[in-house]
Write a structure and sequence with these properties.
Order of helices and strands: EEEEHH
Structural class: alpha+beta
Radius of gyration: 13 Å
Distance between the termini: 37 Å
């Protein structure tokens, strides 16, 4: 584990937030760049252990979002 801005988090070479696909409904601290790309640089929501249930509670929303895109 590594401390990132005072938050205990996993030190992984690749980090992908499962909530990314929810766009503006993810609940995290994000912004859209000038090119329309979602920038989650300042978001710590999925990195905090206390948010585990929030993240896993969104899995059905992710499934619905993926089905809508099919």
């Amino acid at each position: 584990l590594t401390l990132v801005t005072g938050v205990q988090t996993c030190a992984l070479p690749i980090c992908y937030c499962p909530l990314y696909a929810l766009g503006p409904d993810c609940g995290g601290n994000f912004r859209y760049t000038d090119k329309g790309i979602k920038d989650c640089t300042h978001c710590l929501l999925p990195h905090r252990r206390a948010n585990y249930r929030y993240v896993t509670g969104k899995f059905q929303d992710i499934v619905r979002a993926m089905k809508q895109r099919e």
